[in-house]
Design brief:
Helix content: 25-40%
Number of helices: 2
Largest sheet: 5 strands, antiparallel
Radius of gyration: 14 Å
Number of strands: 5
Distance between the termini: 25 Å
Length: about 100
C-alpha cells in the first residue's frame, strides 16, 4: 500500500508533503511509512492512502473470504471515518 504525506507546513516532515511512500504498518490511528529507509509514524490525518477504494476492497475481500488480516480491514474502516470517505464494498460472489 502507498500513501502520500500531508503534514502541517511547520513540521519537520513538511519537505515530504505530496510525496508517495510505501506503508510499513497501519495501526490504531497511525500509519508507518518507510522514508529514507526508516519507519516513520504519521497519524491518519497526516496521510492520504493512494487508491483507497481498491485497498479497502482488498481488505474487505481478505476479511470476508479468507478471514485473514482482519485488523487491516478494521484499521482502514477507522481511516475511512477520519477522512469521511464513502465506500460501498462489491460482493464478488454476485459480480
Amino acid at each position: 500500500m502507498k500513501a502520500i504525506v500531508k503534514v502541517k507546513k511547520g513540521s519537520n516532515y513538511a519537505k515530504f508533503n505530496g510525496l508517495t511512500f510505501e506503508t510499513e504498518y497501519i495501526g490504531n490511528g497511525f500509519i508507518d511509512l518507510i522514508i529514507d529507509g526508516w519507519n516513520t509514524q504519521f497519524t491518519y490525518k497526516e496521510i492520504i492512502i493512494v487508491d483507497f477504494q481498491n485497498e479497502m476492497q482488498n481488505a474487505y475481500d481478505d476479511y470476508n473470504w479468507n478471514r485473514s488480516d482482519h485488523k487491516k480491514y478494521f484499521d482502514l474502516k477507522e481511516y475511512q471515518k477520519v477522512h469521511k470517505i464513502e465506500f460501498e464494498p462489491v460482493d464478488k460472489r454476485i459480480v
